[in-house]
Amino acid sequence: MTFDQIKTQDKAYILPTYGRVDVALVQGKNARAWDAEGKEYIDFTAGIGVNALGYSDPEWAAAVAEQAGKIQHLCNYYYSPENTALAQALCQAAGMGKAFFCNSGAEANECAVKVARKYGEKRGASQIVTLVNSFHGRTLTTLAATGQDGFHRDFLPLTPGFLYAEAGDLPAIDKLLDGSVCAVLLEMVQGEGGVIPMEEAFVQGLARLCKERDVLLLVDEVQTGIGRTGTFYAYQGYGIEPDVVTTAKGIAGGLPMGACLVSEALGDILTPGQNGSTFGGNPVACAGARVVVRRVSDPAFLQSVTEKGAYLKARLEALPQVEYVRGKGLMLGAKLKDKDAHEVLVQCAGEGLLILTAKDLVRFLPPLTITKEDMDQGLAIFQKVLEA
Question: Which site among 153, 157, 291, 358 is 20 to 30 Å from 57 CA-CA?
Fold first, then answer.
């Protein structure tokens, strides 16, 4: 199909929920992709942080294909060795106790809300504190958890039971913990909110406060997790031990998967029938995820992410058109001095570079396996667009 045919078909049959860019990708290899017309792109998006090992990683693809040839799906009434092996590897890498598998970050966060509400049920504590500017998903409950009014409009009434506080304001959070709150939910780096890292003192202080008040600490690692910030999970760089961690995006290297991880102490909080997911723990997705978790959890791999992130950040900061850069590892946002971030995104696509935005920043989430050569080529295109 030509690009025009693809675009026409899209407009005819797909709900217009996405602001499309005029690119139709049909093939990829690591951080390079090709469209329907054969044009090549450097990809600094990784499918919004999903393709942790880039496009079509040979080991990942082989594991997925092999499992698809054995058994592609089974009912969760039955045991699956791919499922159990992934749960062990993931919990060990995360320092958590048990895992619940699902299909997305929003579904993982829904599970976290259930865990928190059940934890607080006996003492009548059901409210959950989240942060202003946060993003936790697009279901009605995770929209309610999201601390941005813009996401709430048009979908009211949302699920009740969420309170909001400013990041960094421990006294304000302390005041909210009046006995009615069962948990606090936060991201280590607010991704959709503008790539804003949390301050270490705030995070550590919040962890202590939650422990003192017997309130669960829930960490949303949907975008920051699976090596994205230079540690397997971003909270591991903050020196804290959450009660619940949610994860998705990069976990299965491009296949739909999410997970909710709980501490050893919460390992039996949910019982049969209290949560479920038809496709959760799908063996094909688990086979891909096992490759990702094994590769990404290697200390040398994580060190390479830190080094690549530092290189990319330094190169971006050196551009005269960039006001500042913030983020961690290969999760970076650049504020431009004079140009509109979305206009730059469109112009970069035209020149062969795929990037993202977050609020008024340009956002970069390249594959964790991106090479220096590909970073340099992408940066050259970015600089060309900024100078135009």
Answer: 358
What tens digit of pLDDT does each residue of 168-179 get? 999 999 999 999
Q: Are 62 and 238 in contact (CB under 8 A)?
A: no
Give SS3 for 317: helix
In tens, the pLDDT along 78-95 reads: 999 999 999 999 999 999
- Answer for the pair 220, 16: CB distance below 8 angstroms, yes or no: no
Cα torsion at 245, 251, 254, 256 (round to 10°)? -50
Q: Which residue has the tokens 């970076």?
A: 332
Which string of DSSP letters, residue by residue, matches 260-298? EEE-GGGTTSS-TTSS--TTTT-HHHHHHHHHHHHHHTS
Nearest Cα to Cα of residue 31 among 324, 334, 312: 312
Angle at 284 between CA 281 and CA 285, to 5 degrees: 55
pLDDT band at 189 (very low <50, low <70, confident <90, very high): very high
DSSP-derived 3-state class of residue 361: strand
DSSP category for residue 97: S
Q: Report pLDDT digits (tens) over 268-327.
A: 999 999 999 999 999 999 999 999 999 999 999 999 999 999 999 999 999 999 999 999
Query: At which residue do the structure tokens 């960039």 appear?
Result: 322
What are 184's strand-pairing partners?
Answer: 129, 217
Distance of CA 370 to the CA centre of its chain: 18
Among 381, 338, 342, 383, which Cα is nearest to 363's? 342
Which single residue is written with the structure tokens 């949560």? Answer: 275
3-state secondary structure 203-253: HHHHHHHHHHHCCEEEEECCCCCCCCCCCCCHHHHCCCCCCEEEECHHHHE
What is the distance between the alpha carbons of residues 213 and 129, in angstroms, rounded to a whole number?
A: 13
Beta bridge partners of 246: 220, 260
CA contacts within 13 A on the Cβ side of 275: 22
How far is the C-alpha of 355 from the C-alpha of 366, rounded, in Å?
A: 9
Prediction pTM value: 0.97
HSE (CB half, 13 Å, CA atoms) of 44?
A: 31
